[in-house]
Amino acid sequence: MPEGPEIWRAASQINDAIAGKKITKLFFAFDELKKYENRLEGSVVSSVAPRGKAIITAFNNELNLYTHNQLYGKWMISGNGEEPDTNRSLRVAIHTEHSSAYLYSASEIEFLKDDEIESHPYIKKLGPDVVDPNTAYEEVLDRYKDDTFKNRKLATLLLDQGFLSGVGNYLRSEILFCAKVDPDHRPKDCSEEQIKDLSHYSLELSRRSYKTGGITTAPELVEALKREGATRKQYRHYAYGRTGNPCYKCGHEIKEMKTGGRKIYFCENRQKENK
């Protein structure tokens, strides 16, 4: 499933392609949405913005298209009106005179009025967005210190969009690695310094990933590894997906374990207190 940085990048690309432009044609695959095809033709896209892992496409008539990619959804942009070459199932197509946005394979698609957005069941539960430049460090720090979350294991808590919005599977491994925190720890098991580091890296790594297209490692490490001939897969992350490889910080082997049916990656030497 795309994480916050990927959703923010997708929303930015869609916004650049169709925002401020008049809609010439629309297509919706689901029958319950067909009535909006003619209704929205000739309207203008006001903005395209991320909300957690969802995207809100706002029109200038108090209607908003809510889409959530789930595991397989993907937006694609075309500048020439030709549909992208893909085997995915087309769900939504928004055409303007010079560009088009296509949504494939997503299942959560609905329309909301302006005054319904904040009360949407998914949106109203979202925690602070770690990619949003307006989210302050203090907001994130307060979440880690909140009694509501202090007894939950961090490996699962970090995937809860009601805790922090935008963190997913690769970001949780990277945040815990950089903060030197055991994935089995709960916030109440962490030192004050670890809580501060978790808050800091929740923001820094998420925003770095957004700016770099998915890279969480520090720029200087990326450049050093590139000079050694490393591939993008090798330099993209500190721990995520690097099972059996040496830790970039201490040289010990990166390991993996499953929690909640999903893999998490860690350096035992850096993160486990009882090695």
UniProtKB/TrEMBL annotation:
UniProt entry keywords in alphabetical sequence: DNA damage, DNA repair, DNA-binding, Endonuclease, Glycosidase, Hydrolase, Lyase, Metal-binding, Multifunctional enzyme, Nuclease, Zinc, Zinc-finger
Pfam families: Fapy_DNA_glyco, H2TH
The keyword Phosphoprotein is assigned to this record: no
PANTHER family: ENDONUCLEASE 8
Boundaries of every FPG-type domain copy: 238-272
InterPro entries: FPG_cat, FPG_N, H2TH_FPG, Ribosomal_uS13-like_H2TH, Znf_DNA_glyclase/AP_lyase
Coiled coil: none
Documented EC number(s): 4.2.99.18
Family: Belongs to the FPG family.
UniProt domain Formamidopyrimidine-DNA glycosylase catalytic: residue ranges: 2-93
Name of protein: DNA-(apurinic or apyrimidinic site) lyase
Keyword tRNA-binding: no
GO molecular function, one term: class I DNA-(apurinic or apyrimidinic site) endonuclease activity
